[in-house]
Every structure is written in C-alpha cells, then in structure tokens.
Amino acid sequence: MADTRRRVKLYALNEDRQWDDRGTGHVSSSYVERLKGMSLLVRAESDGSLLLESKIQPDTAYQKQQETLIVWSEADNVDLALSFQEKAGCDEIWEKICQVQGKDPSCDITQDIVEESEEEKFEDMPDAAPPIELPPCELSKLDEISEVFNSVLPSPIRREKLANAIEYEGYIKKIVELFHMCEDLENFEGLHQLYEIYKSIFLLNKNALFEVMFSDEFIFDTVGILEYDPSKPEKASHRDYLRNSASFKEVIPISNEELRQKIHQTYRVQYIQDVVLPTPSVFEENMLSTLSSFIFFNKIEIVSMIQDDEKFLTELFAQLTDEATDDNRRRELVNFLKEFCTFSQTLQPQAKESFFKTLSNLGILPALEVILSMDDPEVRQACTDIIMYIVEYSPSMVREFIMQEANQQDDDILLVNLIIEQMICDPDPELGNALQLSGVLRILIDPENMMATANAWASVPFPQKTEKTEFLSFFYKNCMHVLTAPLLANTTEDKPSKDDYVTAQLLSLILELLAFCVEHHTYHIRNYIFNKDLLRRILVLMKSSHGHLALSALRFVRKIISLKEEFYNRYIIKGNLLKPIVDAFLTNGQRYNLLNSATLELFEFIRVEDIKSLVAYVVETFYEQLKDVDYVNTFKGLKLRYEQHMDRQNVKSSLDSVPSILRNHRYRRDARSLDEEEEIWFEQDEEEMEDGEAVVPVTDMLKNKMDEELDHISKIIDGKRARESENKPPSPLKNPTRSPSPPPPSRKFNSSPPAASTSPPASPEVKTNNGGITGLVDYPDEDSDEDEDDDRNSSIPAKRPRLAT
C-alpha cells in the first residue's frame, strides 16, 4: 500500500514549455548529509536508480495542483513536477515540504514568487506584501473591481495575493452570480467589464482558480462570460455550440464516472484555450502556462485510465473487426480510436511505448486492415491518421506484423499492399490522403530505422538475417509490382497513355518513392530497374504535357547518375537512355524554365564529376545537336573532357608500343612516379587543356628523351665492361660444357625489377668427375657461335650485365 501511495512520475519542463517524462518511481523525504538538509528523493521503480535528489530549500516556492501534483523550480530555471498516483501520497509529501518551510499544509503554495526586480524593490519589506482587499462584488463596483484586477498583473507578489483572496472569499461564485444578473438585464456594459475581469483571472495563472472555473458547476458560466468580448461587434455563441453541436458520444459505455467527467472537462478547457480566449500576446502566453499544464495532465490521466480498462478496449476492438457492425457504428469507433491515439502524442517515450504495445496486443493492425478497405472516405482518413501515429513511433512493429501475415495470407490483402492501393486509388484530385500514405511507405522502407541485429520473427524463415535484408527482399518480391503498376501501365507506348492532372500527380508521387529507393536500397532497386527496364519506361514521361511530371522523371535520372555506379552508366549507354532528355531539352528551346535548368545541371554534374563513360557517350552521341548551346560552357566543357580522355588514351597506346626496355624500372629514378620533367609536362598539359588551348602530343617528346637516356646508359656499360676486362686475369678454369653467356644484342631488356642478390640468375652448377664445372641446363646449339667469347666472359665477375651493346 505504501508503494502505491508514494508512486510518482517525475516531469521536467523543456525549452518548448512542454513537460518531459523523466521516469516513474517512488518518492521519499529524508535527511541527506551531502546536501545538509531534508530532501526529496525519487528512485526508479525499474532498477532503483536515483531519478531525483532535491533539497527542500526554505525559500523555494512549491505549488500543489489538482490534488496530485507538486510543482516547483530548481536553480537555473529548471521546472520540475511530481505527479502522484494517489492523493494521499501527495498530501503526505506536501506536509513534509510545509514542515521544512514552516508553512500551513492547507495552502497551495509555500512561497511568494518574486522576480529579481521585485526582490530589489521589496528587499527591505517583510516576507509578503499586505493582503489585497477585494471590493464588494456588486454591479456598481465593477469599475473598481476591474481596476484592482488590472493593477496587480505586473507584480508577481500582488498576483499571488489577489489569487489567494479570490480563492479564500469564493469570489468566482460571486462574479458568476453578477454575470447572470447582467445577462438578465441585458447590461452589455457590465458584461464587457466582467469579460475583462475574468480575463485577468486567467492571467493570474493559478491552478486552484482553474479548478473552480472549469468545474461542472461553473464551466458554462466561464464560457458565457468570455462570449462578451468588447472588441467583437457581436456576442459569440460558444455555449450553444458546446451544448448542442459538440454532443458527447459514448461509442463504448464508460463505466468509470471519473473518466467521463475528465473527458468532458478536457474537451471544454481545450475549446476555451483554442477558440474562446483571444490570441495571447507574448507576455500573456507566458502567464497561461498553467492552463496548458492543466490540459496536458488531464490528457495523460485520460489515456492512462482508458489503457487500464481492459474490458473497454477489448470491446472496442471486437466491434471494430466484427463484420456485423454497421458502417455508422464503425465510423464512430474509428473516430474515437483516432482521438485516443491523438491524446497519446502527449505521452513521454516510456509511456508511449507501453501505450502502443497495449494496442498491438489487442490487435490494432488487423483491425486497421479491415477499416482501410471501407468505402467511407472519413473512415479511411481516420484510419490513415492512426497508421501514421503507429508507424512514426514504431515502424519495426508494423514490419514485423507484415512479415508474419505474409506467411498466412495472399499478397493482395497484405497491409502494405492495402496502403499502396489506397494511395493509388485516392479520389481526392490533390491526393491529400495519398501523400500521407506515401509518407507511411517511406518510413516503412527506410533502412535507417531498421534494426541491424538479427530479427526474432519465429515464423519467418532465416531468422539470422537482419531486418533490412528480410523486409526489403520481401517488399521487392511481394509489393514493388503493386507500387509500379500505374507507371508501367501508362508507359507502354512512346508517350504517356493517360496524361490528365490526377494521373500526373500520382505518377510524380510514385517517382518520388522510387527515387528514395534508388538512394537507399542499392542492389534491390538496381536489379528491379534492370529486370523491368524501368528507366526506359520512366523516361517516356518526359513527353508529358505536365511539366512537374517531366521534372520528376528527370529528377529520377539525376538521382541514378549521382550514384556514379558503372552498372547504371553502362545501362544508360547501352539503351541510349539520355536521348529522351536531350530531345525534351531541344524541344524546350530557348525557354528559361525549370526543365532547362535541371537538364543543364544534369550534364554539368557529369562534367564536374568527370564520369568518363558518360562524358564519352554524351559527346559522341549528342555533341552535334548540343554544340550550339553556347549560353553556358557545359557542353564545351564536356567536349574538352572528352578530348583529354582521348589524348591520355593515345599517350598510353604510344607507351605500350615502345619496346619493354624503355619501361625497365631499374633505370627509373622512382619506380612509382614519373620523372620530374615528365610530371611538369603533364601538369602543363592539364592546365593548357583546361584553358582550351591547343597542345603538342607527348609521344615524340618522350621518344627523343628516352633515346638520349638509353644512349647514355649504353656508353656507361661499355666503359665498365672495358675496365673490367683490363683489370681481371683470365679464368683458370675452362668450362667443358657450354656455360651461360650474356644475352645477344637483339635480346630485349627484362622489364621486371632486378633481384636483390648480386649473383647472376644463372642455372645451378655441379662438379664433374674430371674436376670441371657444368651447368644443369644445356643450352641450344645456336649459342655455339658465342663460344669464342668464353675466355673473355669467364674473366667477368659473377654479376652478369643485363645490357648488350
């Protein structure tokens, strides 16, 4: 029992003035040695970790709201709130706080809220300003009452004193009685004054006063007083709307009376905030924060009470999926479920996870499959909103359901295919519902929100695969043909079969999804495009009379080219798939529009990124048609790029035709780089070609340079060989067999790098019986004409020269 009484939720107010849930736990008050005082401690109910450790400061203003809330501000303007599950626990902690501060527990605020300017102004004054005496609530005193109320608004201390006085004297009830009197007498001047007085009460930002004003006894009187806005020419009819038009329907009987009253109150207070009250100024908006908090906590309570009522939700989903339920009844049920999900958006992540898990266990996704197939557009729209709420919060939950039902049902009735069909068949000419459903699809097929770990779908084969691999393979096998069906059906000829506005809007939407797939799905979409020749079909839409559809097709091609994948480039070149774009560009002529700019940007991208295969394709195929487009340098730049590539290929071919001796790395200064002079030449070559100037081919220059170097090398070898012959005595041994001789002059230079060893790569040798040395390899007879040089060669050291003169 103690645990339940002390169970709380901890909230903190963020920068957007919204309450963030910091966790659920149990609160206690005890002396903390480190803080040197009594403190509020909140420990998480899940793991016992410390969620809050706040010393009860003697000068901190604590407020008690709605009997189960305690709100206060920490240092650095951090607003905190404790929401208790039971009123008894709230009263107990409130007494502890009041005991530390020496306050009466019957009050709703322990300190006067003083701003810095007020502190300076009243630093020599007592703890609180003197109480405010309210004028008698009489018709003749309305001017005086209005003046008192308006005069206190700039001062936080006086606002608090006025609020306490109104609450203590039951002043709201007296104002309401005066309102009835003025309305009966049709005293519009008095009614306008009451409006200003009541507006000032709202700006006091006092939760205790809101509870009185929004009670069942006074809620309609509050709305009635606010109908007489003096700035409006006529009286509004808000009470008539709330009583007659905004009738409350219990789609499922609510047995909890507290829940019913809370729903009524929340709707009416929300209506007052959104409709009845005038748009607040910046100053007034800050003073109405308690009103927003009042609505916020009410919605949380409503969602929690409904979620805890298992009988209510079970009956709701049973009727939703029952075929015997008539359409009107089902419409009411769906609208209620939509409102329920809308309220859940105020929940914090932990509570929201519990909320959607409860709906999933009750079978919300199978129910939505039934609802989505209905003909009623209102029901379909509500169903779309619900799906969006679920998918935005937990796309993995929806994907898991889709994969599980794929093993049990046909493709036609899969939830994802139903979503695609509803998108395609949207009756709205502007495709509002289709646009929302395309957003749902985009979230479902987005790999960024797919889990990278192995899935746990027991009914799905290969559970060791990731969610991305599983779901995308499933989607392209079972769903992609449904998505592309309208596109393929409309592009069977050389121009679109249907070219009306609605079809163009729908195909643009499909192309946006396909472009998303190209960007995020890599090989799945690539295989699909190749197998269906999809790009060729999409480019048929370049002939559409609707400019936005032609631009969508062009944007799709741009997305593919931006990947710079050779698979796509070869596919484009082989099919001559840039021809429809060039044709559309030339047909567009000199008109400066989006199509012109987007096409030029496409070719400029190819030039800047230097996509060689596409540069060659564009220049060789389309340059004659595009060379007259001279108001941009794009096509001239493409031509220059193409010429650069061709020159480099010619240089490479020339180098390949030079004997291998010219490419030996032994006599290169650096095996990994060009000569310094050659490097400078190539840099000059690049600069000259970029400037569009004529250049001299490199072949002759390199050939002359290499010939000079080879002559120099040959002279060095000749001199070295002559010196070695003079300094070395003849070899004492004569090889009885033919020994390896230096290579003849016509033999080419080995192009591989020399071995690290200093010994020649000769064949292994063994001693013969007569003491001679013979090679294991017997050389052919044609080497016999070289035997005359054996004496001279035997005197040369073991290092055999690689060059012959």
Task: Note down, in words, how this protein is organized.
This protein is α+β, with helices and mostly antiparallel strands. The chain is 56% helix and 7% strand. The chain contains 35 helices and nine strands. The strands form two sheets. Strands 4-3-2-1-7-6-5 form a seven-stranded antiparallel β-sheet. Strands 8-9 form a two-stranded antiparallel sheet. A hairpin with a 4-residue loop joins strand 2 and strand 3. The chain is elongated, with a radius of gyration of 44 Å. The protein starts with a helix and ends in an 11-residue tail after the last helix.
Q: What is the helix fraction of residues, given as a range?
A: 55-70%
C-alpha termini separation: 108 Å
Strand order of the largest sheet: 4-3-2-1-7-6-5
Assembly of the depicted chains: single chain
The coarse overall form would be elongated
Mean pLDDT: 78
| Main beta sheet | 7 strands, antiparallel
Q: Which structural class do the helices and strands define?
A: alpha+beta
What is the tally of helical segments?
Answer: 35
In total, how many beta strands? 9
Determine Rg (CA atoms, Å). Answer: 44 Å
How much of the polypeptide forms β-strand, as a percent range? 5-15%
Low-pLDDT runs of 5+ residues are: 114-128, 454-464, 664-699, 728-805
Describe the structure concisely for a colleague.
By secondary structure, this protein is of the alpha+beta class. Helix content is 56%, strand content 7%. Helix 17 (364-372) packs antiparallel against helix 18 and helix 17 (364-372) runs parallel beside helix 20 (415-424).
